[in-house]
Amino acid sequence: MTNMLYSFTGLILFVFGLFALISCPHPLRKILGGNVMSTGIFLFLVATSYRTDTASIDPVPQAMVLTGIVVSVSITAVALVLATRLQQSANRAMNRREKKNEGGAAEG
Amino acid sequence: MVSAESWIAVPVVVPLAAALLSFLVRRGSLFISLAAAIINVLAAAILVNQFFVSGPAQYAVGGWDPPLGISLRTDGPALIMLVLTGLTGVAISLYAWGYFSFRIDQPARAGRPEKQERFFWPLWMLQLTGLNGLFLSGDIFNIYVTLELIGVSAAGLAALSGKSASITAALRYLLVSLLGSMSYLLGVVFLYKTYGVLDLGLLQKMAGPTPGVIAALAVMSVGLLLKTAIFPMHFWLPPAHANALAPVSAILSGLVVKGSFFLLFRLWFDIFSPALPHTAFSLMGALGAGAILWGGIQALRQQRLKLLIAYSTISQLGYLLIAFPLAFTGGNSQTWSAVLFMASGHACAKIAMFMSAGTIMLHLGHDRIRELAGIRAYLPVTAFAYAAAGVNLMGLPPSGGFIGKWMMLIASLSTHQWLWALVLLAGSFLAVAYVFRVVEQLFVIPPDAPFIERHPRAGLLEWPALILALISLLMGLIAPYPLRLLDTGMAPQVVQVIGG
Amino acid sequence: MDSAMTIILTGFDLLLSATLLWLAWQLLRSTDIFKAIIFFICFGLLMAIAWVRMHAPDVALAEAAIGAGLTGPLFLAALRKMERKQKKERRFDPEEKRDNPDKRWQVRSREASPLMWIVAALTLCFAGLLIRTVWIIPRPLPGLAQQTAAHLGASGVDNAVTAVLLNFRGYDTMLEVMVLLLGAITIWSITHAPFPPRLPDTSPVQKSAVRLLLPLICLTGGYLVWQGAYQTGGAFQGGAVLSAALVLLLISDFLWLPDMHSLPLRMGMVLGPLVFLSMAVLGIITENALLRFPPEQAGAFLLFLEAACAISIGLSLAAFFAGGRPASDLREKPYQTDQPDTEKEGS
Fold first, then answer.
1. Can you give the pLDDT at residue C109?
2. pLDDT value for B494
């Protein structure tokens, strides 16, 4: 029962994240979506190994999830730096354009 | 004493060590990486030799046998990819040496080429680690980790040029690759839920058409198709490949997409072929047909050389998918080995093409196809390398592309699947058109052609490209050798399924 | 277990699942990206509770430390850097589009387009298919619990998760540590860390608090690493706690940090992966298999390995937060004139 419930929750989280990753235009939102997606998969995976008595729990999915969490934080960090870098260069271009406009207005 | 079996770890361990060292000590990173690439190709040769002596091998990492531990395995498909990566790896390393020393001599912006070189080597070595790890791995979760290693380092490499366009492309590539590997991981979870093991060999014994397997294979395939940039999920590839530095474009287009394709191949033919319905194979063929035509037409319309080559990658990847239905119903058990054979031929040709494009761009400062006339006057080796690689893409004898396409054509005609044969021919005509569009420019020397001085290190840029182009051109002549490698590597069960 | 307990637990499960889904929906659909990040942090903390409920305390600890504790601040820092600095806008706008001066990522309209509905419908069908598949997978689900338990004695540690992570599937973990380092290398290759930090001057209270906290945090991290062999904990959790100490240093504006040379940082970052790799090769030489540890000394080997990895993991995670390589490392010369970003560059 618990097993099933958390499996479903994990799958729905995965689908939420997938939808956000596909449909949201903002890069931060996309990256958030990716994170929700991976968390959903992890929940789905660990729910597999859940048993009521702690002794017979399968540790392999848990180790896999630990690996997954670390991998996903690396990807998140790289994606965030790329997105920031992109936005900053767009900001710089924008500011330059504004400065040029202001300069032109002052001269004229 | 170190046993002979342990050679299987070398293609992973050596590039990994090189990556760490070249990040740590930056001065000699070039030579560290070059040495690692050479050792890697030697290890691949030794593994091939071992394979011919004693057949497919399995190696339990840490001494723990599956299902508890992770196994590495060598079989025909893994070895052919390993050899391909090893050879092209050495060529790319040499080319990158020439490329960066050229850029550092004539910097567009002081300090930037140095920075790019420093980070190129560790990223490239980690990419090599990931690819080798993927080919050798016998564990589906371990494959996921190698996929991420490939994906992140590819995004890092793609962003290396530092231009806004390449950063945009790298971010998009990273997100796509994340989507692909998440999808793959979901499939891994379904398989683990169904069978409770992660080892490929054990899964192969257990797999049947159960709902868990079908779901797993569906999500994994979609993820891998996305990562391989199969039409209509190719949108991320042209900007990422065309805006990167030249050695990076070569890596991305030649090797990275082959990594995920190899995995797709392994899952469909090696592990789960008994579980799959015929319609699934036809669907893959249809995607491939779309890719061939769409990529070819787009390649014809491009104005920039690197974009043309990138779209040609999309088109050529389509061929690899058309082989799926042909291999399944072809009746000819060799058709499936044509797939990997063609993939390696294409990898060599495509790397040579991107190298040539990079050399041209370094000397001219642009890659507008209309203004390329007269390259042959001062870069004859590069012009010839481009043309030789083009022969492979067009599928003319004696190239590797010819053998692959010929085998597929025979298979489609012998089983009366005329449609695939038509697409194969149409794709070849498109390739002829887009290859000649550039080649005619390269070889025609207009009377008023400007004289451009060759860089003293240009040899390092030109010869690796030529050698790879010649390999792809002459692969048809040595075809029996790699095909034998592939045939012996085939599990008997699958041969039976495909043959019968 | 008596029935009252079961009912309470089931109620708890339902509530937790519903809250998780609600938070996820909120964080993906709220108009304000700042709010979304806060929802994400709450989501991570609740996930940690869910992991505890799943009897996965190791994962819970990692999720709390890395998933919510580090990823959340990473997002906040990124958001802060993405804002425009020239005009004195409010820091966090309710409208997402005002963060984007070039309007490239502007939300087109609040009403979803037909395409969006099609995508939504497709994902819904996809979810239905997935759930149906899970429903019909035969139970009980198979697993590797027995094999792991049978070989636990030979692994050198008592904690089954640590045994799987570092011994049975140590090869995965080795590559995973490389992915972490790869992330740091990639970030270093993209940009410099924005030093000096753009924070307003730090209060003396914060500085002295950080001085007091640092040793405590390091001690906790070390303890977690050591404890990993027996109970919950390990290199990742310990490393994450160490990275918290480094992040505190970073945001408290200590003067010596911007002048930090990159070589000691690189050495620290490479240490763990290098030790891991050397041990793997040592296994080939002495035990005849990659990454095999002699069973008698496996415990000591693993502890050494975890300690080295924790340092590197801590540094790499902190490098993620810093968002670039040290300021003095591999400087590109500034432009002579104000050239546009998309200059012709020869490639």
1. 45
2. 39
From the CB of residue B380, how many other CB atoms can be counted at a distance below 10 Å? 14
| DSSP codes of every residue in A10-26 | HHHHHHHHHHHHHH--S
Please provide the DSSP assignment of C209-223 as one string.
HHHHHHHHHHHHHHH
Tens of pLDDT along B310-341?
999 999 999 999 988 887 775 555 677 778 88
Q: Are B182 and A41 in contact (CB under 8 A)?
A: yes
Q: List the single residue in A11, A60, A80 with the smallest CB-CB distance to C143.
A: A60
Nearest CA in chain C to B190: C134
**DSSP states of C18-71:** HHHHHHHHHHHH-S-HHHHHHHHHHHHHHHHHHHHHTT-HHHHHHIIIIIITTH
Task: Taking each helix axis as running N to C, give the angle between helix B211-228 and helix C114-136, from 0 to 180 degrees, rounded to the nearest 10.
Answer: 140
- pLDDT grade for B482, boundaries at 50, 70 and 90: confident
pLDDT, residue C258, reads: 64
Q: What band does B207 get if pLDDT is binned at 50, 70 and 90?
A: confident
Query: B197-211 burial string, b = 16+ CB within 10 Å, else e?
Result: bbbbbbbbeebeebb
> Would you identify the CATH topology of the domain A2-107?
Helix Hairpins (1.10.287)
- Strand partners of residue C66: none
The nearest CA of chain A is from the CA of C27 a distance in Å of 8
Contact C71 A73 (CB under 8 A): yes
β-sheet bridge partners, residue B71: B60
Rounded Cα gap, residues B149 and C178, in angstroms: 8
Tell me how crowded residue A53 is: count the other CB atoms within 10 A of its CB. Answer: 8
Residues with Cβ within 8 Å of residue A34, at least 6 apart in sequence: A17, A21, A72, A75, A76, A79, B175, B178, B179, B182
Touching A (3+ Cβ pairs <8 A), the chains are B, C
Intervals of chain C under pLDDT 50? 86, 88-110, 335-347
Q: How many CB pairs under 8 A join A and C?
A: 251
Mean pLDDT over the full length of chain C: 83
Of A56, A85, A96, the CB nearest to C145: A56
Judged by CB atoms within 8 Å, which residues 37-76 of A form the interface with C? 39, 42-43, 46-52, 54, 56-67, 69-71, 73-76
3-state secondary structure A89-100: HHHHHHHHHHHH
Cα–Cα distances (Å) from B456 to A41, B110, B246, B451, C273, in that order, read 54, 21, 19, 15, 39
ipTM for the complex?
0.94
pLDDT at B414 over 50: yes
Which three-class secondary structure state does DSSP give residue B125?
helix
Contacts of A85 in chain B (CB under 8 A): 167
Q: Which residues of C touch A75 (CB under 8 A)?
A: 183
pLDDT of residue B493 exceeding 70, the answer is no
C175 in contact with B at a CB cutoff of 8 Å?
Answer: yes
How is residue C114 written in tokens? Answer: 């037909």
**Which residues lie below 8 Å from residue B290, measured CB to CB, with a gap of 6+?**
B231, B232, B318
pTM of the entire predicted model: 0.93
CB A13, CB A40: distance < 8 Å: yes
Question: Helix (H, G, I), strand (E, B), or coil: what is residue B59?
Answer: strand
What structural domains and CATH numbers belong to chain C? 1-140 (1.20.120.1200), 160-329 (no CATH)
**Residue B483 confidence class, pLDDT cut points 50, 70, 90:** confident
Contacts of B197 in chain C (CB under 8 A): 142, 144
Mutation for testing the B interface, residue in A78, A87, A88, A94 having most B CBs under 10 Å: A78
Pair of tokens at residue B46: 């030794």
Q: Which residue of A has its CA nearest to C316?
A: A74
